[in-house]
Amino acid sequence: MADTQTPAPRRAPRRKPQPRPQTINERAERALRELRTIAREIGAGQDIDPRELDDALGELTLPVTVELGGDSLPRENVEKLATDLRSRVDEMLKAAVAFRRGHVYCFFCDRPDCSHTQPTQRDETFAGYTPTGRPTWTTFTNLCLEHAVDRVDLLYADRPEIIAITQPDSALKEGMLPGFGGDSLAYNMLGQVVAGLIPLNLDVERRSDVPRVALTIQLVETRCGRAIRRLRANLLGLTSTEIQDVAASGYARGPAE
Ligand SMILES: [Zn+2]
Ligand SMILES: [Zn+2]
Q: Which of 63, 118, 211, 254 is deepest in the core (most CB within 10 A)?
């Protein structure tokens, strides 16, 4: 549009000041920043604890194809870049996604949260994997019987005993096939201690009608994109929030008892 009128005195000048032309380095930096933003947004879109996200994200190397002939960017180049970004970020976050508090990773479904990853009853504990990597569960009483614990009946006495059983990874991973988690580095179960049966109110002094659970503490090693190994403790049977809540209420009524 031609401007034939004299601008009003207080109007801003029509021509914006030209920005200084960016150097190639500055433009490369802008492109990298944009890639970084996209990749981090893909990561944040994963179902993953934000505290874990920063730990898990590392250096990403991308093969980028840029067609220099013609006027436009070929659609397949655009789609390949988007696909590569998604799959490489997903791969990088696999270890962080694999560890889910209160769950055991299912290699059969390749998921941390399918129906196989938690017991159906709270007196059950992790009993190892099927050959194809599906977690199996057993009641604490059965575990005691399998381990030939003396006096399993004491679990049900007037003043019940707490029994603890330690299981190394060899017991928990026995029979797993390679390719179904038997050789997994992303999620590696190192062992567990199971204690039971523990009343939900943590009052182990007397028998009551309070439901009792198997409390399982697992040690899991995960390996992230940066090849960093992390040891994580997993709790089954009680959540750490439940334990804290009981402890807090116990302290609150402490002096009266
Ligand atoms: Zn499953
Ligand atoms: Zn055993």
A: 118
CA of 147 to the centre of ligand 2 (A): 6
Ligand nearest, relative to CA of residue 130: 1
Q: Judge contact between 135 and 144, C-beta under 8 A.
A: no
What are the residue ranges spanned by the domains of the chain? 24-98, 115-256
Distance CA 80, CA 73 (A): 12
pLDDT tens, position by position, 140-190: 999 999 988 888 888 888 888 899 999 999 999 998 888 888 777 788 999
pLDDT digits (tens, 9 = 90+) for 6-22: 555 566 667 777 888 88
How confident is the model at residue 256, as a pLDDT? 45
Count CA atoms closer than 13 A to 208's CA, side-chain side.
11
Euclidean distance between the first and the last CA atom of the chain, given in angstroms as a whole number? 87
For residue 105, the Cα-to-chain-centroid distance in whole angstroms is: 9
Dist. CA 148 → ligand 2 center (Å): 10
Separation of 107 CA from ligand 1 center, angstroms? 7
CA of 129 to the centre of ligand 1 (A): 11
Q: How far apart are CA 78 and CA 75, in angstroms?
A: 5
